[in-house]
Design goal:
Layout: H1 4-17, H2 22-28, H3 34-43, E1 62-68, H4 73-82, H5 88-100, E2 102-104, H6 105-112, H7 116-124, E3 128-134, H8 154-169, E4 173-179, H9 185-198, E5 202-206, H10 213-220, E6 227-230, H11 236-248, E7 253-256, E8 268-274, E9 282-283, E10 289-290, H12 291-302, E11 305-310, H13 315-322, E12 327-331, E13 342-347, H14 348-355, H15 364-375, E14 379-383, E15 392-395, E16 412-414, E17 419-421, E18 428-430, E19 443-446, H16 450-460, E20 466-469, H17 479-488, E21 494-497, E22 510-515, H18 529-541, E23 552-557, H19 563-569, H20 573-587, E24 594-602, H21 605-623, E25 630-642, E26 645-654, H22 657-674, E27 680-686
Parallel strand pairs: 4-11, 4-12, 5-7, 5-8, 6-7, 8-11, 13-23, 14-21, 14-22, 20-21, 22-23
Antiparallel strand pairs: 1-2, 1-3, 9-10, 15-19, 16-17, 17-18, 24-26, 24-27, 25-26
Helix pairs in contact: 4-5, 8-9, 18-19, 21-22
């Protein structure tokens, strides 16, 4: 019959989709007599039509694809070679289709302009077919990894046996899995989740960053048919679908960030908190909670096992394991015979003096190591925990710096759009050409950020393929998956990133890591600053040498004699924990006490000061009769103003948790009666992490 080819294509499309919306068919078969064609096919009983009411939440979306006819691939290749030399655009389009074998019609239109005429010609010649395919969620795509049989280490087997026995016996069982980087913690998680499902139960796996979800999905989807994903980077439609999958029991494994702890799974049998030390598990605003602590309570309520995993456990968790509250499981060796990387420390004070450059970012040793790594085809990761180009700009004549009008903090310079931005409130402005205070033109950007590091590396190694990972570059949906794909495919030589690259990633070809400013976190006024700095150095260093080749780490620091650097250099985690626990005990800080932070926030500074003074009076009076309670403050917050809101805080501390909560509630009730809560907000944060 005339037009039989189109009929066959139409039938193939309908068959591949079971229920094909007419609107989707029109995108491929946009001929005028489509209705008549469908009627003829229906009369021949080849298709049937019906009206259905679709839930808009789950309305399928389709991509128009140009699919290569593989049986005629050789002929298509010869056709491309026969094209005249001046048909460069046509040749490029054809080459793209040949290489991809399944090309997006929309993407080709964006890249090459209107391709309809050429595609129609190629269809007529039998080289390609135009098809509509259901758009696949990027979080359900599988990576092209082969599942290899895994031989577990003795330590892994002990950990797996302990956790599986706990799942088998039922009841509340908390574990701390303390394993060095690359020791195979993820495989222990997978075996525990398999055991939970074998028992007819479900598992929740929490990760600290959205950036880690593709890695976990890739590892878990080899073993589980359906996984529910829960985090803020997926669309509302996908969120709702995954929520229902968990609720209905269709997905027995949930992977997500902190909010995934509230997933409505059926028959919860296991909770895993990966990188349990991370502060991102704590929500600091709105509904305040720590997902790690919620997980422990939820596990107790559901009588199930909970595994806290980390290469650098929090001091609190380590202490709980030491005191017997958690079962302690230790992994001290890397899997597959890989070894811990070799660490080098560079004193940047000496380096900058010898180079006569106070703003030197990359040491000679690091540059030499990068060059060697590029020559042998290995990958490099460079860590700098500050986005933007420079920390601030300054006038060299009067010393004026550009500060945020809404926050008590300097604006960060972003060279990509020549702007100054506040990373707290989002305020943005153009860089002034002259100083607003003295009209000088001698304005200079100081400090370092990932943008500047990227530029310097690009200048030093112009042929290297670079990739930047920070919150400015990873905003697009699918950005993390694309990063993983390119790293796995070897399409990236050097990665420059913030804490997004610091933990959890497993790239076997990364053999060099550079920590550009190891001291950055030590200046923060927080009793946990050394703990966080040690964890960060250890975690970032652990990205190197996880495959068949040994790794190296270059640590750039202004204080090479620091205890933190020494402990990290010698991989002395236990020694660091013991020293830190002794210090915390002498100062009566957690885990030897509990803290509650009272925070006063107001748009009106005078109203806030009034509340601040009343809080001071009430707390001092209440403390006289409470010897078990100590009060620190109130004082202005280190960052006094954020988003045009003035801020003060006061810490209350006690070794008795029950008395602390009673005291805090009583103080809050009294303060609420004497403060105008219309103009002043009183925030209570139990076990605070952020005290800036």
């Amino acid at each position: 019959e005339k037009g039989a080819g189109k009929n066959v294509a139409l039938l193939e499309f309908i068959a591949s989709n079971d229920l094909a919306p007419k609107s989707a068919i029109k995108k491929v078969h946009d001929e005028k007599n489509l209705t008549a064609l469908l009627t003829r096919l229906e009369k021949k009983a080849l298709i049937s039509s019906k009206e259905v009411t679709l839930d808009k939440t789950f309305k399928k979306t389709y991509d128009k694809r140009v699919v290569l006819n593989k049986e005629n691939k050789t002929g298509f290749d010869e056709y491309i070679k026969s094209l005249p030399g001046n048909a460069k655009k046509k040749s490029a389009i054809c080459q793209h289709i040949l290489e991809s074998e399944d090309a997006s019609y929309t993407d080709m239109n964006k890249c090459f302009g209107n391709v309809k005429k050429l595609v129609d010609t190629l269809v007529a010649m039998g080289y390609v077919a135009v098809q509509m395919k259901e758009r696949e969620s990027i979080y359900q795509r599988q990576f092209d990894d082969e599942t290899k049989p895994i031989k577990f280490s003795d330590e892994q087997n002990i950990a797996i046996r302990n956790i599986n026995d706990a799942i088998d016996s039922g009841g509340y069982h908390p574990f701390l899995l303390h394993g060095i980087t690359g020791s195979g913690k993820t495989e222990v998680y997978i075996q525990a989740a398999l055991k939970a499902l074998e028992m007819g139960r479900s598992a929740i796996i929490l990760v600290p960053e959205i950036a880690l979800t593709p890695h976990f999905i890739r590892r878990f989807e080899r073993h589980f048919d359906k996984i529910a994903i829960m985090h803020s980077s997926i669309s509302p439609k996908e969120k709702y679908k995954h929520f229902l999958d968990a609720l209905n029991g269709d997905a027995r494994v949930v992977i997500g960030v902190r909010s995934a702890i509230f997933a409505p799974v059926k028959e919860l049998g296991l909770i895993i908190i990966d990188e349990e030390h991370e502060t991102t598990y704590k929500q600091d605003d709105g509904f305040r909670y720590n997902a790690r602590d919620v997980a422990l309570v939820k596990a107790k309520m559901n009588k199930c096992a909970v595994v806290l995993g980390s290469a650098t456990p929090s001091i609190e968790s380590y202490h709980n394991a030491e005191s017997g509250r958690y079962k302690y499981l230790r992994l001290t060796h890397r899997v597959q015979k890989s070894t811990l990387p070799e660490l080098f420390v560079v004193d940047m004070k000496e380096e900058r003096e010898s180079e006569s450059r106070k703003d030197l970012l990359l040491s000679n040793l690091l540059l030499e190591k990068i060059s060697e790594n590029l020559e042998v085809g290995r990958q490099t990761m460079l860590f700098l925990n500050r986005r933007g180009h420079s920390a601030f700009i300054i006038c060299y004549d009067c010393g004026e710096t550009e500060a945020c009008p809404n926050c008590s903090i300097s604006l960060t310079y972003h060279r990509s759009d020549n702007s100054l931005a506040c990373h707290y409130c989002g305020f943005k402005k153009s860089v002034p050409s002259i100083c607003p205070k003295c009209s000088s033109i001698r304005i200079k950007a100081l400090g370092f950020g990932t943008q500047r590091a990227y530029e310097e590396i690009a200048n030093r190694f112009p042929d290297a393929r670079l990739f930047r990972v920070d919150s400015d570059t990873m905003t697009k949906k699918g950005a993390y998956e694309e990063f993983y794909r390119k790293m796995d495919a070897g399409e990236i030589d050097i990665v420059i990133g913030t804490q997004m690259i610091a933990k959890g990633h497993d790239f076997p070809n990364v053999t060099l890591v550079g920590i550009l400013n190891a001291d950055s976190g030590l200046a923060i006024p927080d009793f946990r600053s050394e703990e966080r700095c040690f964890a960060l150095i250890t975690q970032v260093s652990g990205r190197a040498g996880r495959g068949d080749f040994p790794g190296q780490v270059v640590i750039q620091t202004l204080n090479p004699e620091s205890d933190i650097i020494t402990y990290a250099l010698r991989a002395q985690a236990e020694e660091f924990y013991q020293k830190e626990l002794e210090l915390r005990k002498s100062l009566k800080y957690p885990p030897f006490s509990r803290l509650i932070n009272f925070k006063i926030v107001s748009r009106n500074e005078n109203s806030g000061l009034d509340a601040f003074n009343r809080l001071a009076q009430l707390s001092q009076k209440a403390c006289r009769s409470q010897k078990a309670i100590s009060v620190m403050g109130p004082v202005a917050c280190p960052i006094y103003r954020i988003k045009n809101r003035f801020r003060w805080q006061m810490l209350i501390r006690s070794e008795n948790s029950k008395q602390l909560h009673i005291f805090a509630k009583d103080l809050y009730d009294k303060l609420s009666k004497v403060v105008n809560t219309t103009h002043v907000k009183i925030n209570i944060d139990v076990d605070p992490f952020n005290m800036l």
